[in-house]
Amino acid sequence: MTQVLAASSRECRDTVSSVATAMATVLRADVRTVEVDLTVEDHAAALLDALERPETAVGVLLRDAPSWRIASHSSKPIVVVPPGFVAVHGPAISRVLLPLDGSAEAAAAVGDTMRLFADAGIELVILHVFDEATTPLFWDQAAHARQGWEDEFRIRCSTPRDIRLELRHGVPGEHVVHVAVSEGADLIALGWSQHLDAGRARTVRATVAHADMPVMLVPLAFP
Amino acid sequence: MTAVDDLAGPREDPAWTVQQTTRDPVRRRVDETLFTLGAGGYATRGAVEESPGDGPAVLVAGVYTGTGPRQRLLPGPDWTQLDIAPAPVADRRVLDLRSGVLVREELGAPCPVRTLRFVSAHRPGVMVLRAEAATTRLRAGAGLRPPGDEPMSSGSGEEGRCWARVGGDAGITAVAIHDSRENRGTRTVERFAAYGTGGIEVVEAAVEAARRVGFDRLLAEHRAVWADRWAAVDVRIPDDPDVQLTARFALFQLWCNVGGQGEAAVGARGLSGHGYAGHVFWDADVFVLPAVVSMDPALALAMVDYRVRRLPAARAAARAAGYRGARFPWESAADGHDVTPTSGDLGGQPVVIKTGTLEEHITADVAWAAWHCAQWTSQRRFLRGRRRALLIDTARYWASRVRLDRDGHGHLEDVIGPDEYHESVTDNAYTNVMARWNLRTAADLVGGDEGATFRGLAAKIVDGHDAATGLYEQFAGYFGLEPLLIADLARPPVAADVLLGPQRIAASQISKQPDVLMLHHLVPDETAPGTLRPNLDFYLPRTAHGSSLSPGITASLLARAGQPDEALRLLRIALRLDLDDLTGTTAAGLHLATIGSAWQALLFGFAGVRVRRGVLHLDPALPSDWGSLGVSFCCLGHRVRLDITRDVIDIDVDAPLRVCLRGSEVRSVTGHARLPTGRVP
Prior knowledge:
The complex is a heterodimer of chains A (223) and B (681).
Chain A: E1 3-8, H1 13-27, E2 30-35, H2 41-52, E3 56-62, H3 65-73, E4 78-81, E5 95-99, H4 104-119, E6 123-130, H5 145-156, E7 164-169, H6 172-183, E8 187-192, H7 202-210, E9 215-219
Parallel strand pairs in A: 1-2, 1-3, 3-4, 5-6, 5-8, 6-7, 8-9
Antiparallel strand pairs in A: 4-9
Helix pairs in contact in A: 6-7
Chain B: H1 2-6, E1 17-20, H2 25-34, E2 37-39, E3 42-44, E4 58-65, E5 72-76, E6 83-84, E7 91-96, E8 101-106, E9 114-119, E10 126-134, E11 138-139, E12 152-156, E13 161-166, E14 172-183, E15 186-196, H3 200-213, H4 215-232, E16 234-236, H5 241-257, H6 282-293, H7 297-308, H8 311-320, E17 343-346, E18 349-352, H9 355-358, H10 361-377, H11 385-401, E19 403-404, E20 410-411, H12 429-446, H13 448-460, H14 496-500, H15 502-506, H16 516-522, H17 532-539, H18 550-560, H19 564-576, H20 592-606, E21 609-612, E22 615-618, E23 628-635, E24 638-645, E25 648-653, E26 657-661, E27 667-669, E28 672-676
Parallel strand pairs in B: 22-26
Antiparallel strand pairs in B: 1-7, 2-3, 3-4, 4-5, 6-11, 7-8, 8-9, 9-10, 10-15, 12-13, 13-14, 14-15, 16-23, 17-18, 19-20, 21-22, 23-24, 24-25, 25-28, 26-27
Helix pairs in contact in B: 5-19, 5-20, 6-7, 6-10, 6-20, 7-10, 7-11, 10-11, 10-12, 11-12, 12-13, 12-16, 16-18, 18-19, 18-20, 19-20
């Protein structure tokens, strides 16, 4: 049976558990709860081992410094839960924000996740932010250009027409949380390279740092 | 299968073929566009035979459906489909520019699927396909299939005959016949299709005639047309095979996408895709037509006549706006009424579209195209009748549109220039000077009191020129905007308005594309002498090139200004824009204006060709990497071939031609002449 691995200390058990239960509903999975102190080296190693088990589909952790180590080494998606998180819209996940930069890699990373959520009847909202790297070279006529651009974006990112696409311009990390709040998203799902070197994962860092809702980090190499 | 085998030579010739072997489904959608074949106003996209492809299989120039801004080119019945099972996993597709055929060969199969198709350049509307494969894999199937969700009436007869019609009586009719034969386990299918916009009898007769002629002879006559085209128009750059090939691709697709019966409506994406709904912009008049007139003057004339036939609608538009004369629409389709949408998006930001009401320079652009056609072809009778009326009525529009202030200065308020980053501006230099040019040109035609009125008013229109700096101010107040340079924001080309939002960009001096500089490109005699370079120096660092119209024209201007190396960098962008899918939208069609502008850059910029009052002027500029540049083109009713090196220009003409090199005395050239260039940078 597929499992959602809820890993937390005793103090924040309820916070993590509620999100794990919601994820388990989506995945039609069981929740397996483990009590860990990620500051202890053995606990972190044991958790990574548990995540590697075939039956583990996703891990759910509280957002704190050690959670980055787990997320960057896990081959499974990790849902990072902000401390003290209380689901505003109830315990279930009904709407998910999926930021996509337009690259085939990012789209592939969250492709399975997208299908999982869609199959579970969850509303998906795609967010694309035009930044220095993703702004098109040309935008000829504003009356027509969007259609052509969006057609291509959806094909390249395997995003069907029935999934709403929100567009912004600027720095992606400054938009993701804001759009998630304005859209009433229960979860943000982000593909990422698992590299935390200087200058990398800026959108992921900013989102995890500022989100008031759980953030699912999907490794680019996943599944 | 001689026809496919015949191509074994040319398909290996990298100077004349565009080849593709990718399995990437995204890229294959782009290839459908790149492998468009067309002639005479009929074109078919390059979808593979076992799949209906991503866009319309067939488009016909000027045949639209829908109303208002939703008006769009009507897709015709699909003639290219065959039943092939299993479908090829890997293939090589070769577009042979020299003979105008698309060849496909399956890779890795013992008895491969092989196809060859062409759209007859000799018989407008006739399309031909031959396919061969193992008998067990290939069947002709239905000869004509519906274009997507478009309703289609159809019927079939004996011996593989079928007909189909889309869009009712005013739509597109197709008739197809196929022949099938088997030999030692290989099936060969030949399909002949004809398209038309009239009665089915005409179309039927065309396809019957084609079948009688037979595949091989049809191909031979088709190749002969292409051979004649390339004998008249070509580019030769031995030191730069990439520019040579991509420029040939540009010429090829202009021939394929521009055409029509009596008139030629040339949409922004030609007939190669559904993008921009087939609407006709200034792209046709200013970017495509100057290229086409150097290739096939009759085609350019048909483009002018598309506008001429919509003069009544333009007159009605002027009247409706409270003015005299004729005002052409920013976006035009079937009947010449404005079909510009009123809403759109800049990236993710919804915006009100004002181009339909404010981008009025289109009216002068249309007039300029007609005049340019007359100049280039030197046809004395060209500007008579309704074509003459077009120039005069557009001038009448400006005469009633210009507002005189208390000092007697003429102004045009609330317009959008070519730089669409700045809307609702006053005295846009491009619009004002083009209006002035329109008035002066019409004055010469109309004469009398009205001519004098036109001339007097033209002299009063302000143009923002500062004699001290040589600069033209793009519009009133432009120099007071935030003096941002594009390098401060991003590396061009970039859609700066999408990156930063339209408000931020509108408050700055960042331009989308050449605006003032378009004057130096189109009407240099209307600009003050010596002002090209200072305006290039000022405006280029402020230009985002966020329009695909921008790189080619800028390349032409830079070459003329003696900066051919910088020009070449931009020319490469223009030439590879679709081939490399730089916009990410080529799957929806070729950027025909970019293609036209690239040929303009080669001809007007690098070769330095210009026609004035029946004289061919030359002022070439070669990039440092090019030892020579050869161009062949049509001009002043003649075929002209130039072979330019740093020392000499060899000129070959098929009849006496007056030539002026770098402003020296005009000489008559007959047959062949070799002129010392003096100086080629």
